[in-house]
Amino acid sequence: MAKALPVSPLLVPIPEMPPVAGVRLATAAAGIRYQGRTDSTLIEFAPGTTVAGVFTRSLCPGAPIDWCRAALKNGKARALVVNAGNANVFTGRAGVEAVKATAAATAELLGCKPRDVFLASTGVIGEPLPYERLTAALPELLAGLSPDRWHDAARGIMTTDTFPKGARRTVMLGGTEVTIAGIAKGSGMIAPDMATMLCFVATDAKLPAPVLQAALKAAVDASFNRTTVDSDTSTSDTVLLFATGQAKHDRIAADAPGSAVRGFRAALTDLLLDLALQVVRDGEGAQKLVRIDVTGAVTAKSAHRIGMAIANSPLVKTAIAGEDANWGRIVMAVGKAGEPADRDTLSIGVGGTWMAREGGVVPGYDEGPVVAHMKGREIEIAVDIGLGKGKATVWTCDLTHGYIDINGAYRS
Amino acid sequence: MAKALPVSPLLVPIPEMPPVAGVRLATAAAGIRYQGRTDSTLIEFAPGTTVAGVFTRSLCPGAPIDWCRAALKNGKARALVVNAGNANVFTGRAGVEAVKATAAATAELLGCKPRDVFLASTGVIGEPLPYERLTAALPELLAGLSPDRWHDAARGIMTTDTFPKGARRTVMLGGTEVTIAGIAKGSGMIAPDMATMLCFVATDAKLPAPVLQAALKAAVDASFNRTTVDSDTSTSDTVLLFATGQAKHDRIAADAPGSAVRGFRAALTDLLLDLALQVVRDGEGAQKLVRIDVTGAVTAKSAHRIGMAIANSPLVKTAIAGEDANWGRIVMAVGKAGEPADRDTLSIGVGGTWMAREGGVVPGYDEGPVVAHMKGREIEIAVDIGLGKGKATVWTCDLTHGYIDINGAYRS
């Protein structure tokens, strides 16, 4: 079923992931769908842990998303249970039963409320989750909990990711150094699985849930929401941030302004962007990581939309796969974004060379450096709209035969 | 440069195209980019011909689009000049000069005003159009004009289309039978060309320009705007409708309501849908034509948007290429459309078999007939949202290795 995929040429090695105070992790092979690998992950958080979450905008989300959204209202968490191999999406009443039973069993073992247990599932859609296998693995998971198992957890949540993804930052908060650590999965896929992006982050900072939620929302907007692989949105996309409160820093009030945690927010954004780019680097069939800098738009939001129109254009992405600096297709993508743009003030550059400027080809434009740049693994596209001061950067990958191979395969 | 592409397996033969009173056509090989084929087309219309047009929504359109939009204000036409091989897009002042010079030269030969000459170009972007070659070919084009050359014209406007596209309808109007005939090109592409959709339609009906424009707008909304190959929008998309007024039917006033030309509008819509589906059948790398019927949405507009979200989803399109009835990906696409939808009222069927209904797999669902249907050339997907009475049908093609081959090729 899970045909072994070649490891992405854009791989970055997972960094050292030392413990985060108040966090213990474990994985087990529950045999939910995959054989011979871990597929179930338990992360336990110290009492008093607060939580924030951002979820898919899909109007047809999976049962675990519904569960997490409801649980989030309490703002407290003691555990996260993740399974790979079955997304528990479009499973009707059985899906609801599965999340209730899993949360109840975990809560009983940990001595907490079911509402303190967060859940995420990734894998095949439309098949009932054999949750008894998951709950049967809980004692083993509990026994295996250790602060040192971040790498195991990063592997346990993978579906057809070709490498495990993790990142870690430290930052000063209220006079003390705190740690933020996270893992992510996506955007590999096995037919008929859905590419789902899951990201779980923990910090030893002590932050009230509203402060945490505001920080997470802003950080996701500036990271995951600036990346795309193929414009499709999973029914299960999830980013959860847990704050164990073990660090001994000055108290942060629930109504503290964003500026009170500016450094923390910046570090969190940086960490999420790191993880988001790891996901793009492992995009289905990706051979090149593409950065698109849009400047001169009428607003930052307009720049973001123009950037995403370029990043999601199949014609732009196939041209990049072909190592062709086809700026005509970039003009096309700008034109279809629906945002203010003017052909005659538009400039387009690749790898630091401006190719087209103010409505025409740059006179005497030398294709040499551009051709060389396009052969690399990391491609930089610059688009200046020439109308205002709005700017945004987004990232994508190229569209290759590998994408068709992975996503056009028969289910088997 | 133009690597010969295999003819689409979804080809439909071009029908017989007898003359339309008041229309003469000619083609020539002007050597604009291609060698050994016709690349320039002149269509001459009788004095008194009215015209309507619908153009790309791109905010970075080509110079011929600007020209046509301005010329359309007069509502009159005597000629159409089309070249293949160069799109005259992103060519700055040179592009404006090219359209002015071509229109002036044509007008002088025909004894009309430049504003009566309509222009369309398709091909490479960002290279100045060598319009002298086009104007040099005008005398040959003029000499070659004949009412019998519709097939030649259908071939002359092709870029990497793998078959010529035409359609013809007759309909009663004001007590007389009138003819509507049209040709189209798209959506093949050669690197670095842009897939451009061009469609030119002529009728012998005598219709004031406002009536014609309203009819064309409605017909395009119900045909071309319901189809997609890859979600990208060309800078040159053009549909022009010319009415020569040679048919001797009852007079239609300029302020006649749509109902006065109901039959004509229906025939026009049917013809444009025929041409639009021919374009999808010739989509880059297309192996399957896909029809998506959305019912039960809150409004028709909502149904249309949901249909287009499915039709543009790379994950749905690659699954179809793999002959995999992956309804999980259809759920995903419905969920990301941003339109009202409810997982628990959603039903999905393929080839007449409902696979998923009301939030779960249909009990005892037999995959056999669905698997057989997916192996065919024409795929039917039905999605019932279960919320209202809005419905819409859209068409697309699958996403295959052929698409990557065609669009990822180096420029050379």
UniProtKB/TrEMBL annotation, chains A, B:
Keyword Lipoprotein: no
GO BP: any one term: ornithine biosynthetic process
InterPro entries in alphabetical order: Arg_biosynth_ArgJ (IPR002813), ArgJ-like_dom_sf (IPR016117), ArgJ_beta_C (IPR042195)
Claim: Transferase is one of the keywords in the record: yes
Subcellular location field: Cytoplasm
Site (Involved in the stabilization of negative charge on the oxyanion by the formation of the oxyanion hole): residue numbering on this chain: 122-123
Secretion signal span: none
Record-marked site positions (Cleavage): 195-196
GO molecular function, one term: L-glutamate N-acetyltransferase activity
Sorted UniProt keywords: Acyltransferase, Amino-acid biosynthesis, Arginine biosynthesis, Autocatalytic cleavage, Cytoplasm, Multifunctional enzyme, Transferase
Active site: 196
EC class: transferase
Reaction catalysed by this enzyme: L-glutamate + acetyl-CoA = N-acetyl-L-glutamate + CoA + H(+); N(2)-acetyl-L-ornithine + L-glutamate = N-acetyl-L-glutamate + L-ornithine
Record EC number: 2.3.1.35, 2.3.1.1
Coiled-coil ranges from the UniProt annotation: none
Quaternary context: Heterotetramer of two alpha and two beta chains.
Family: Belongs to the ArgJ family.
Function field: Catalyzes two activities which are involved in the cyclic version of arginine biosynthesis: the synthesis of N-acetylglutamate from glutamate and acetyl-CoA as the acetyl donor, and of ornithine by transacetylation between N(2)-acetylornithine and glutamate.
PANTHER family noted in UniProt: ARGININE BIOSYNTHESIS BIFUNCTIONAL PROTEIN ARGJ, ARGININE BIOSYNTHESIS BIFUNCTIONAL PROTEIN ARGJ, MITOCHONDRIAL
Protein name: Arginine biosynthesis bifunctional protein ArgJ
